[in-house]
Amino acid sequence: METPRRTPREVIEGCRAGDHGAFAEIVRLHQRRVYNLAYRMLGHAEEAKDLSQEVFVSVYGAIRGLREEGKFEAWLTQITLNHCRNRLKVLKRRHYYSTESIDDPVETEDGTMERQIVSPADDPETVCERKMVQEFVQRGLLELKEDQRELIVLRDLQGYSYEMVSEVCGLPIGTVKSKLHRARMDLKAILERAAH
Question: Which of the residues 3, 98, 106, 183 has the least number of beta carbons within 10 Å of its own beta carbon?
């Protein structure tokens, strides 16, 4: 007989009680989102992979202090962004900055994984164009100010609601909307400059 699936609240409560299986489930459920956020902020797959592992180590150590299980996703996103901010400071001090091609596969413990799931219905030209656009936008994102990049990544690329972005960034919704508008305009200008 199959074991019933735990609700997200039960998983978090299990993790807080020291259940390693519950923690493994948290990692399984959220690792892709954490990695994607880290990659969009850092622009480098290996750095994003390392940072994702650090995020989950932090989560494991801090989850007992989480007061509201319903706020877990915002809490996890804040932890990820804090790690990204710290890593960006270190990278800037080392004058290390390179972006990778979005075509490069991501190295995982299970082998390599393509960054983009390709629909078999897509012809090679469409797939190539999509990858070029994604790489072009990623390079533009890295030219934005850090706080602008965060807003675009959270709202436009991760798909968070304005309410969630407001909670994660600690800004009123009106401020999120105005800053996001400015960030989009700046990104548009960067991309237009790069296209010419």
Answer: 3
Q: Which CATH architecture has domain 116-196?
A: Orthogonal Bundle (1.10)
What's the rounded Cα separation, in Å, for the pair 157 and 193? 22
Hey, where are the domains in the chain? 1-115, 116-196
Q: What pLDDT is recorded for position 23?
A: 93
Tokens in use for 136?
């072009």
**pTM beyond 0.85, yes or no:** no
Distance CA 72, CA 78 (A): 10
Q: What is the DSSP string of 69-91?
A: GGGHHHHHHHHHHHHHHHHHHHH
- Using alpha carbons only, what angle is made at residue 184 by residues 89 and 166, rounded to the nearest 5 degrees? 70
| Nearest partner of 104 among 157, 44, 31, judged by Cα | 44
Indicate the pLDDT class of residue 122, thresholds 50, 70 and 90. low
Q: Which fold has domain 1-115?
A: Rna Polymerase Sigma Factor; Chain: A (1.10.1740)
Spacing of C-alpha 28 from chain mean position: 15
Q: Give the CB-side neighbour count of residue 138, counting CA atoms within 13 A.
A: 23
**Rounded CA gap, 156 and 169, in Å?**
15
